[in-house]
Amino acid sequence: MAPMHVLRCCQRGLAWIPVIFIALVVCWSYYAYVVELCIFTITSIGKQVVYLIFFHFSFIMFVWSYWKTIFTKPANPSKEFCLAKAEKERYEKEERPESQQEILCRAAASLPLYTRTGAGAIRYCDRCQVIKPDRCHHCSACDMCVLKMDHHCPWVNNCVGFSNYKFFILFLAYSLLYCLFIAATVLQYFIKFWTNDLQETHSHAKFHVLFLFFVAAMFCISILSLFSYHLWLVGKNRSTIEAFRAPVFRTGSDKNGFSLGFRKNIAQVFGDQKKYWLLPVLTSQGDGLTFPTRLVNADIEQPTAVSSSEPNKSEVIVSPLSESHNRLLNNEQHTNSTVQHVAGSPIKSAPNDTIAIAISMESES
Q1: Which residues are catalytic?
Q2: Predicted pLDDT of residue 332
């Protein structure tokens, strides 16, 4: 036990090396830009003031978003996704996978679950002993299930998921802005140092200015590609995991299952109030446990909210149906008769038939 504990502590300590490296590079860049460039190299006071104002703005926003990404704890499944003590004991005693799935199905009957494993089974984490909510995955590095997990990032030593995904996007955006601003403003002095056009009195700053440009340009190129990729993911409402492995619903896998349209996809991450979009404060929609999803094929076990004017528009799942509604929707004869009614006559408002009509119209489309 003692060696394992020591090994785990060493692993946790080593995991901070990339973060410490980034912190040291940022501290050096601050010194090189403020002291060596603005104070010792630039002679115009007006240019110094303008450069320092914009530099400190990008620097503060970059450090703020980076801090929030690192120290925001990943969100975990709530207690309602844990098996009851009796169910957990029965699950552990069962040796047959079929019997274990029956236990999980009974436990998940009242939970808002729409995704399954590739084999169509309930997604369950044996390590954390919880039923996985939609878009939740187990992180081996953090040793926990993370809501809407995107990936584990060694540069922040944290899991990027529901609770800090917005912060991660802003971290990429402001780090890119920080590097672009440094590279753009240092370029002319980089050329002058390289061609020896500056006076010898500024020679002590030559190393810092030259190296500052190279570092800023290198990070700018790498961050730009990563930032562009994650903007594409936000627009599609996918995580990195879902981009490589499409989520599986009861009706099959669907890479666009959680896509609600570009604007709504953006709002899922950044929230409804645009004035907070550029600030590293949590404004993401939802609780990370449930997500609205469009139905490509009708899921007879879940209800849908359908727009009366646009029947082919993407639907949003509301909540699990009761047992009586499930029995109603599973009645194939009743569903077929409803389809004929929709095709042959106008739809009338009927509280008991609303859900069945919605499913039937989606099946036709």
Answers
A1: 153
A2: 38
